[in-house]
Amino acid sequence: MKKRSVTVVRGIILAVLLFVALFPIYWLIAMAIRPANEMTGHIAIIPHTLTLEHFRELFIGRGFGQAIINSLQTTSVSLVLSLSFGLCAAYIISRRRFRFGMKQPLTYWVLLVRVLPPVAFTIPLYTMFSKLGVLNSKVPPTLACVLINIPLIVWFMISFFQDLPEDIEESAQIDGATEWQLFRKIVLPLVAPGIAAIAMLSFMYAWNEYTYSIIFVRSPSNYTVPLALAVLNTEDNLTNFGLVAAGGVISVIPITLFVIFAQNYLISGLSSGAVKE
Questions:
Q1: What is the 3-state secondary structure (H, E, C) of the chain?
Q2: CATH number, domain at 246?
Q3: Which positions ≥6 away from 203 have C-beta within 8 Å?
Q4: Which structural domain range is residue 187 located in?
Q5: Fewest CB within 10 angstroms: 2, 11, 58, 183, which?
Q6: Does a structural domain hold residue 75?
């Protein structure tokens, strides 16, 4: 009887926690599909009527589709560049010996770039991009995401490369594999769970990046999704919560799809990377 009571109490607690976690998501969707006339005065928990007017206004009247394309472009390019440089750097740091004991200081220096707040790099990046003549384009937010994501990838992946048995690599070298073949065909497939995990984290940061976008991008044609959502709340339509909610629903779809397809690799990757023998 006592055991059953404990189980019931645990079930109630979990149900409450689940409700608290999921209710904001439900409310976001409910606001997005609720007519504007139902958002004045007392707002019912369940919408009386459903509408897609906010989504139509978002894509037809506000050009939100271009913002989605811009975010997909900047996120994809920054993710490819970050993984390309970050994985190579992590492998070199984990496998090569450095003179004068510079390996550990170099590792912590890489982490320092990720620990510092993004706004600390604003002035040097602005000066650099201004001299290159690429301000007010998609290049600054893309390269800024690369700058932030590479240290995270390096720090995260070093432990995966260090956990790999060196005997496997030595056997491949004896069989005549070059350094590039060894890295691409043997090492990378073995650390695929870690790559999937860090790719998702990097994707989430690049997709939600707002600080550099609002500083470096001025043209509405180059707005990313976070910046396009921010300008929806202006003095003219400050109370247009349905439009903002519709944009929020659209903005979480790419990340949700990425998580659904990568969740198995994510769980195994985070677990194996966090536990060392």
A1: CHHHHHHHHHHHHHHHHHHHHHHHHHHHHHHHCCCHHHCCCCCCCCCCCCCCHHHHHHHHHCCHHHHHHHHHHHHHHHHHHHHHHHHHHHHHHHHCCCHHHCHHHHHHHHHHHHHCCHHHHHHHHHHHHHHHCCCCCCHHHHHHHHHHHHHHHHHHHHHHHHHCCHHHHHHHHHCCCCHHHHHHHHHHHHCHHHHHHHHHHHHHHHHHCCHHHHHHCCCHHHCCHHHHHHCCCCCCCCCCHHHHHHHHHHHHHHHHHHHHHHHHHHHHHHHHHHCCC
A2: 1.10.3720.10
A3: 75, 79, 255, 258
A4: 54-274
A5: 2
A6: yes
- The number of residues making up the chain comes to 277
Residue 233 has pLDDT above 60, yes or no: yes
Q: Are the CB atoms for 276 and 159 separated by under 8 Å?
A: yes
User: Is residue 125 a part of any domain in this protein?
Assistant: yes
- Render pLDDT for 82-130 as a digit per residue (tens, 0 to 9): 999 999 888 888 876 666 566 677 777 777 777 888 888 888 888 888 8
**Which structure tokens are listed for 97?**
């010996």
Can you tell me the distance from the alpha carbon of 172 to that of 106, in angstroms, rounded to the nearest whole number?
A: 28
What phi and psi, each to the nearest 5 degrees, are found at residue 97?
Answer: -95, 140
Phi, psi of 139 (to 5 degrees): -70, -50
d(C-alpha 71, C-alpha 77), whole Å: 10
* Structural domain count, the chain: 1
| Entry pTM | 0.81
Rounded to whole angstroms, the Cα distance separating 208 from 141 reads 11
